[in-house]
Amino acid sequence: MTSGLLEKRFKKSLGTYKANAVIQKNMANTLVDLLCGKEYSSVFEIGCGCGFLTKECTGRLVYKKYTANDIIPECFNQVRVYEPNMAFIIGNIENIDLQDKYDLIISNAVFQWLNNPEFVIKKLKGCLNSHGTLVFSSFGAKNFYEIKEIFGVGLDYPVYTETVKEEVFELEFPSLLELLRHIKSTGVNAVTDYTLTRNRLKDLEEKFIERYGKIKLTYNPIYVIKKEGE
After folding, report:
1. 166: in domain
2. CA 207 vs CA 79, 171, 188: distances in Å
3. What pLDDT, in 10s, does the model give residues 83-105?
4. In a domain, 209, yes or no
5. What pLDDT score does 227 carry?
6. What residues contact 33, with CB distance under 8 A and at least 6 apart?
7. Which of 14, 69, 137, 159 is the most buried (most CB within 10 A)?
8. Are strands 169-172 and 102-108 parallel, antiparallel or unpaired?
């Protein structure tokens, strides 16, 4: 997916993301659970969005300097309430030139959107101080598998050997329309690019019921930790 299209979709969903991204909020909490008890001189957060992870990091980690990043400039206004002295870098992490070094680089539910995650990981590990840590959450193969099976579209999720934790959550919806609204409200609206007539929506809903017994959506969060020098 192009950076411009990704920015457009997430910018459109900024107003609805907080209320609907319940799994992503839980993921931010779990990420910081993996790190509590440690101190960092400098922290760099990638893809801060509306601030789920920023709130957890600034409230629970001990640090001296905090830098946040996002492709959407307006996100700065959402996250600086948690750390007024933070630095903010605008841009796609795949393209921006990073000059500083960090003790901790952290990201929540962003890496699945990268065109070349291995390139980004190598780039970020080069920005770690000695004994620094790169930690991020993404999604595994079971994520949104219902959408792939019914609609035939979806992301291909990389396998990370340094995965330290994996979870599976299932959300149930009263109708397929509500499921699609949920997806769209979190910016992940590739499926809603389809033109769905009322009859087509009804046919797809019947397929969901026939195959799964209900209208549901599976999330499969994973958590990855990589150390400098590994």
Report:
1. no
2. 41, 17, 21
3. 999 999 999 999 999 999 999 99
4. yes
5. 83
6. none
7. 137
8. unpaired
